[in-house]
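Memo to structure team: turn this sequence into structure tokens by end of day. - J.P.
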Amino acid sequence: MMSRQWLLILALSFAGHALASDTLRCGSQLVSLGDRSSEVLQKCGEPVSRDVLGYKRSANRREEFQVEEWTYGPSNGMYQYLRFEGNRLRQINSKRGN
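Reply from structure team:
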């Protein structure tokens, strides 16, 4: 019985960690995966840089859409890298600056 409780606590702690990587705090605002680039721009302001990484083909519709990476920071030594695919936020990564 006791080991089941520990397993549940452990599983919940990993679930909370996974959710945290799906959001980014910009001041008092939060941006999340799936947000439009215009929403992110409104909440976080202009990024330090915007890089077009290329184009990606949609599996369903046979269309291409732009893949872009925005960089924010440094904030407390951390850079935030936001990847957009077709104007939707798909990935948030953090990396400590050198």
